[in-house]
Hints:
By secondary structure, this protein is of the alpha+beta class.
Amino acid sequence: MAQPMNMDDVLQTFIAESRELLLQMEDALLQIEKSPHDLDTINALFRVAHTIKGSAGLFGLMPIVEFTHVAESVLDRVRSLEVRVDEALSALFLEARDHISQLIDLLAEDGNLDRLDEPLQVQGDGLVGRLALYLDTPLSGAPQIPQDTPADSQLLAPGHWHLSLRFGPDVLRSGMDPLAFLRYLGTLGHLHHTITLFDQLPPLAAMDPETNYLGFELALVSDASREVIDGAFDFVREDAQVLILEPDASPQACRTQIDALPEENADLLELFVRCGTLSESQALLVAQEGEPSLLVDVLPETMAPLQKAVKSQATNEGNLIRVDAAKLDQLINLVGELIIAGAGANLVAVRSGIGEMIEATSLLSRLVEEVRDSALTLRMVQIGATFTRFQRVVRDVSKELGKDIVLHIGGGETELDKTVVERIGDPLTHLVRNAMDHGIEAASLRLQRGKPAQGTVSLNAYHESGSIVIEVSDDGGGLRKDKILAKARDRGLVGDGQVLADKDILNLIFEPGFSTADQVSNLSGRGVGMDVVKRNITALRGSVSLESEEGLGTTVRIRLPLTLAIIDGFLIGVGKASYVVPLNMVEECIELVTQPGADTGYLDLRGDVLPILRLREMFEVDEPRGSRENVVVVQYAGLRAGLVVDRLLGEFQTVIKPLGKVFGDAHGLGGFTILGSGAVALILDIPNLLGHVARESANRSTQSPLLTQ
């Protein structure tokens, strides 16, 4: 017997899909503001509202159904060109979209919508009232059937649909309740008459409580379109027979529908009469109908493109599967443990000296590496979806500030780890809002400076040396270095006689509480945020830098690792300790030959001056020095330095594990990993170390202390 579907899981799927649809709705609404006559986008909006309403109806979530029905009705008038989308209507739909999102959030929190508080209810009622202004017909009440229509002038009264529903035996096991579909039809109009068919019921002793035996014949009075009524059954299409008879159906169409059903024709004619669909004289006409018609009489040709599109969409969706992120995390953890175990097996094989075992473990290592790459690929997502969400941020903030600002997006196809994408959202939000508030000038000032009145904020992403770079740029007024330096001196961050390079001056804005804003606004100016941005990015093992030219604009550049879980590393040794350097940051390895200047922290590397950092001194390793030393040349974000170490131990698949809170402030360390021997190796934070080397180099060149970040 098939296992019944867990309805809690189905509800969570509905919540996840609704949130995705709401993001699509937001994107479409922002697009509509720019292209109000784009019928494809308008139709996409209608489909989103219709899908959410239909799905909510299956769960009996009437607050969502009733509210979305009103929005859908307005959208129906929009797509039929009866209502034009202007800025006011677009803004209203954005508010409606946010209200639906709040209902979904409440559903996710409580598992139902019983706890609908008064403010949320009042908000929904207010939006319904404003949406109703765009409708000519009342929002509630079914259309009334005219009573003065001659009995035989047409088979069905206006708005009177007849539905024949035969749900499959496994529909309950699939998590679908037939009665939920009837309840949803009630939201489209009035169920004039419903007849339940019990013909398939077996004897009581043979009944299976998880098997459906029921069918339905019903009359629906509704002004909804056939597309809307037919769309109510999208979720059960493969497990049910759904036949719909339109209000103006011919006797031939009635006969076709009756012939397609499994029951006796005479019995079905009686049911059609009982539903009020046919009078007795009309039933006689249907019974006397000669040749049965083709199904095309029941399904108009206008439905063919829709059916083709639905089929195509179903085929595409069949190639996808939704996986809980927690399961992916568990998979990555298991792959990490597999890498550690494989390294241990390889070490034992090498020590044994058995050729066959060494070859077998080598093959195992290659396969584990392929599994690792495949597992990490599952967690990779495009950053474009995150970037697109800022269209709404830019729209709302620009209106609040009274500025004309547009968002440009580039590199949306760039992929990185899902965890990184989720955690970079807040820092990006602050940077975008800050660029709009402080970066973009007022339109009058921009015109004085020879710029277009419309300001531009840009989001761009690209890969560079095994990392991802995210840029937040604006074409505003840029940062005034003299003003930043003066503010820093006032706060005691920089001494009166201290000389700073331009880069160090700009980096002062990342100090806690630092702000150059003349006025405090709702968006910024309190000195809270940029230090948090840097701290959040550093927590992701990333770095942030700043470039600005006064009068031309500012660019904040964030560099992040592609993944936070597993990397290719290069293993080095100092004394008895082992350390790991990310392999993508290693340029080359050379033997350290004593030369003039080596003791002052520099080497001559083929004519280039290379700053060096002795890990033995940095980590205070008090052990005998080896017979030779080596230099590992590393680079990151344009900085370059050499790490002086005792031993080069080769490439190593590194499973990154975070340091505990006790070691959270440890300088130059980004985590640890477990070697095949069971020993622990520390992972070096190369961006941090290179920043330290750069500051030390600046100290030596200027002979004056610099502010330590």
